[in-house]
Amino acid sequence: MDVNPLTRAAEHIENMKALDAPAMAVQRAARAVFGRGRVRQVLAGEPIGHPLHPALVGVPIGAWVSASLLDVTGADEDAARRLVGFGVLAAVPTAASGAHDWLATEGAERRDGFVHALLNDLALGLYVASWLARRKSRRARGAALALAGSGVLGGGAWLGGHLVYSRGVGVSGRDKLR
After folding, report:
1. With the C-alpha atoms ordered 138, 141, 144, 150, is the resulting torsion angle positive or negative?
2. Do 128 and 71 meet the contact criterion of CB atoms below 8 Å apart?
3. At 57, phi and psi to the nearest 5?
4. CA distances in angstroms from 27 to 56, 70, 98, 101, 133, listed in the order given
5. How far apart are CA 163 and CA 117, in angstroms?
6. What is the CA radius of gyration of the chain?
């Protein structure tokens, strides 16, 4: 069977043992930040009965895609800036809930999740830069940065989907932290 290039890229990431040390260091730091109390329960999605991360990812993505639509159509510049900013703010709890889900991973899944987070962090940085450019009335630059962010975000989103749909991260009892 012919494997698509994205799946080959994920397999390459899954075999990159050089990612283990930095990924484990980030997991240790995240465990220390999240602790064991109510914050961890909320990030796990316990109040809603399933992982929180899938419920949140659409918010920043939707805001950013909407901003790009406004950019492409030349519509309301202030609304586009506000949408980019809202997406940046919404990315914070989204990333925190994703990091929580990632704490239960190891090996290939931890490596995929680490790269997923790195890609999303890079995308977030591009969107922050887009918002800053827009604040200085540099809409074309802001739009270009947002477009670059959406490309990186697409790669990160694909890898996140791979974690869930191909690797089963976040869909079984084995991923719950006790």
Report:
1. negative
2. no
3. -60, -30
4. 21, 38, 12, 11, 33
5. 12
6. 17
The residue type found at 133 is A
pLDDT digits (tens, 9 = 90+) for 94-142: 999 999 999 989 999 999 999 999 999 999 999 999 999 999 999 999 9
**Cβ neighbours for 84, distance < 8 A, ≥ 6 positions apart:** 63, 64, 67, 127, 130, 131, 134, 142, 146
DSSP state of 36: S
pTM: 0.91
In 10 A of CB 124, how many CB atoms?
A: 22
Neighbouring residues of 176: CB distance < 8 A, sequence distance ≥ 6: 44, 104
Residue 139 one-letter amino acid: R
